């Protein structure tokens, strides 16, 4: 009897240990949600940890801004939680807004989503109009984040004025000029001239290389150079009849049929690999794209890339983001202060200097860090000069709630034309089906 | 019925020991009433926790999903629901993408389940021999099952990567051109099936093994006396004895493949994974549901998809039942009445 009992006892203990272990593991696994809650609010010493949730590349880490803020405000530590792709970030943000939990103190919002957030979720965010000087921003940027009630729910971080990034080495091998001015001259005639240059490149292209990464970038550049994009001013979706969408689609179909592109889904693994291996000669480059290129092409390709003005001197805004402060946070005031600081001219200039993300705060434009900025990675391209001209003449675009989904669906179908040789009509029908599901 | 435990009622009426005084009779009646009440009611109390939890986490979400399926609800405004009746079902049934994902789900289900169960059966048969370190082998084949879907899918995503993936690298050594696995219609389904097969074969093998060990040894002895070879023994003794177990694993695998989500989502990851590839070539029903609800932002049709999945599962279960019945009757018929 004694033996049995002790065995049973041991078994009991094992079970207990096992369950405890499982519970601990479960707690650790779900810890991401739990621990951030306990981070919020000040601790006994008045120390505060602020969390910033963003996507892609905001450049704060690269510019060392969070450390700097901690130095200026020793009681405040800032933690960043970055999702690589905005397409994955946004559904998560909506879910968190709906459930009211898991939100960071500061949330990034992309321009393709800001209209939907302003229309439907403005109440969930703190009004920043009293904290930030709204007039400091380029006029349309602030308007995009303003709710009908007058509340400003987001402070502009960057805008995406357009340029063209090109690989000097590949241009040289293909017998094309490599100097900025010469390349700009060749594409002076606009996107048609850009495609013509592509055909010229293709004739002597080094094997395994392509003129562009994806025609979807060109499509986005064309559409975003027009004030009328996917919606009209009354909020009706007009993407099927929009002249800029039509033109962008035609150009993309041409690029696909002439096989000028590698047909990669931008920002995905294979696209990153193409940059690493230098298989694409040009990338249509909103300012923030430069940061992506230097990250994925890596140090090995430093100095091989260059930046020139966009074909036809197109002035357009593609992308750009906002920082918003959810009302439900425990440190709304501190978070708003952080947002104000991060989007102030000096800090935007620092980010611009670090990764080339262009300021939306006009106060930054006159700062030497912006005006005279060059990017060493891009053969010291004078980006301050290239973007500042374009930034001033960007048209005020009409935004719509589903801009993000529309852009993504069309990009996917452009990739299908490029990769699979899907006919433009079939591809367009597929895009329309998806978009109508999103709008409907 | 003879083997089931007799209820307490059976004893309640048994003659009481004569020790009891007649004055205790009223108490006796009361006690017997309590006894009987306990007998009738306590089983319900015992199973109540399950039903409470099932009600809260199973039934309620199920019904609420049905309620949502009849409304227009968007991700951006969960509190404003607008009654639309059957419109959401109409929408998804008229969406070619829905039917693409139905056929994808079935194709992946077949490509993954059939080899998986056959291999599991073979593995179980091998493990059923007297082996050295049998526990070790049994543990080993169960390890894939113990990994999480996400980590398995992420590792396999590296294997199947078009660019520098392990598999393409190996193929390259043998002189084949690299294959863009996730991009192809068949290759992507194959890749996902391989992840599923890898994860579930060991689990099914252990279930088969347990069933095999329950097969009485006399059957094999009798068979070998009759001169049956090992293969004949496997076919004529093992397989028929395993029939209920096989049916069980088929049902479980079917349910599993109907809900396939993590593997396709993570094969390419990112935005492509969330739409099941750029041409929806590996979009399963769960991915379609997720995409409709979370990317496109409409929860009504997404809920309708969930119910459509339930309906499909019930259809499959019915087909399974009919087939199973057919086999059972056809298996019994030639034998003597039992």
From TrEMBL, chain A:
Signal peptide (UniProt feature, chain positions): none
One Pfam family named in its UniProt record: SBP_bac_8
Residue ranges that the Swiss-Prot or TrEMBL entry lists as coiled coil: none
InterPro entries: Bact_solute-bd_prot1, SBP
Record's protein name: Sugar-binding protein
From TrEMBL, chain B:
Keywords: Cell membrane, Membrane, Transmembrane, Transmembrane helix, Transport
InterPro entries found in the cross-reference section: ABC_transporter_permease (IPR051393), MetI-like (IPR000515), MetI-like_sf (IPR035906)
Annotated compartments: Cell membrane
Domain of life, per lineage: Bacteria
Family annotation (Pfam families): BPD_transp_1
ABC transmembrane type-1 domain ranges (all copies): 102-320
Main location: membrane
Protein name according to UniProt: ABC transporter permease
Record membrane topology: Multi-pass membrane protein
Species of provenance: Streptomyces rubiginosohelvolus
Sequence intervals crossing the membrane: 44-70, 106-127, 139-160, 190-211, 245-262, 304-323
Family per similarity comment: Belongs to the binding-protein-dependent transport system permease family.
Location of region: Disordered: 1-25
